[in-house]
Design a protein that fits this description.
two-stranded antiparallel sheet; 6 helices; about 5% strand; globular; WH-like_DNA-bd_sf; MarR family transcriptional regulator; WH_DNA-bd_sf
């Protein structure tokens, strides 16, 4: 092997990501949401009227995946989609009152996880971790 498995960082990064997603999945179940649905509602709560394409970029998913999430949220009356006043082909997405309540409930639970995670590190360590993770992303995307 060109690189021994115990020197590879990918598994460590994946383990942390899976632990976070598992914990958040459990947390947002209280609001009967998936992590993807919660992410979409959370972004919409801060950016009402966002298009599906912009929402997909903000949630780091494909437009196709976001379309499925939005369809489900709309069927459950957690969002409403209306034509943009100037761009009739673009749909603006807004939270309904039920959507606002769901994201508030889910976020209370998700924030507990984020706080536990943040409390494990000093402010300086959190900044360092963000820098290191950004470097990981750049290294992976560079393809070099």
């Amino acid at each position: 092997m060109d690189m021994p498995p115990d020197t590879r960082l990918g598994l460590d990064i994946k383990r942390a990501e899976q632990a976070l997603m598992s914990a958040k999945s459990t947390a947002v179940k209280a609001a009967d949401l998936s992590v993807a649905q919660y992410a979409a509602l959370l972004v919409l709560s801060q950016n009402p009227g966002m298009s599906a394409a912009a929402l997909a970029r903000a949630c780091l998913v494909t437009p196709q995946a976001m379309t499925a999430v939005l369809k489900n949220l709309e069927q459950r009356a957690l969002i409403k989609r209306t034509a943009h006043p100037w761009h009739q082909k673009m749909l603006e997405t807004q939270l309904t009152e039920a959507g606002r309540q769901a994201v508030e409930l889910a976020d209370r639970e998700a924030v507990r996880i984020e706080r536990r995670l943040a409390e494990e590190f000093t402010g300086e360590e959190r900044d360092t971790l963000r820098t290191l993770l950004s470097r990981c992303v750049r290294a992976i995307q560079s393809g070099g």
